[in-house]
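seq as requested:
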Amino acid sequence: MKPHTQNSFKIISFYSFLFIFAMFSQAQDVAWEKMFLYDAMGIWNESSELDDRVSGHDELGKYCACWLFDKDLTTAWVEGVKSDGIGEYVLLGHEKALPDKIHINNGYQKSESVYRKNGRPKVLRLSLYVAYYLPDDFTELGGNFYCLPFPDSILLELNDEMGTQAIELAFNKEKIGSLKKLGDLSFKNEFGEIIAERLNTNSDNDWYEEFYGFVVKLEIIDVYKGSRWDDTCISDIWFSTEKKKDPGISADEKITEIFKGEDGNIYFSTSMRERILLASPLDIENEEDIISGEPDIVLMDVSPDKEWAQIDFLFSHEAYVRVEEVAFLYNVRHGIKVDKSVLGDYYSMYGFLEENGKIFVDTDKGMFDLEEILKMIRE
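struct tokens:
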């Protein structure tokens, strides 16, 4: 599936872009959109929810947007207005890096019957914001974000089927970069005094950075109607960003060695060339579960066919006594660090195992067939 940019946005996007640059060059005030986002399971908010009563799930609603993050198809966000929910939306926070793809489990996938009885989005409008925040502007529930909207939106046309649908987010990254530059300048101009005052009065804010990342808004535009109820549902949503390298390794080129170089990077050699870069500490600069500090990388395990490697990143911070460790799966031939969401957002990885002619990677989420993983990252 491919996303479609709305025609109306195509018409006005050029003028909107000029408007952004005019604002940037003249350092004019920007009309910030203030959004409150909850911090529970993920960063989110919603326009409505079918049942907002406390459900016993840590005081989260039974059908709130928080369940979009849990990778559990027996839960779902269900909008809470009468009729089909056209115009209802969720807001989802995504730190630092702009994702390449959005993955959606459409409808309520608890079962085939539940899926068909409830409504499913047919078309979603995806809007994007660059987001900033102030120090000490959070509570245990969540926090305030100050957002600038990107002038273009994308229409996502979803299939009426169970399973995961992956869609590329074809935003113009140069224009997004320009919007972020505008935001960086304008946020400092608008809130600089408040930031300085709060940083001076609270030494615990040493970690603070104004820029949070991106907020994605998904609005229901059209639906596949349910056979019994008019509630429109989505089971899960997640994003992925993959750094794709192109080492030009052909299918008949044999991988002969994977090793750590004296410079701290991980390399591999083939039957036709030597010392091709596979991984470096820079590979984790946009990972959300990595704290700041000087990282080191360790080649922990190599698959029997040398097509895969488990590379662990070790990092520490002066505020932490112990060294933390996070494992990642790499496909060597394609030079790709596999997004953790593809493996169910595992916490730990335990190397490779070969059974009945197939190779698996072992994680705390279970064993994953590497042939199936390769098919997914090729999509």
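The chain has four helices and 24 strands.
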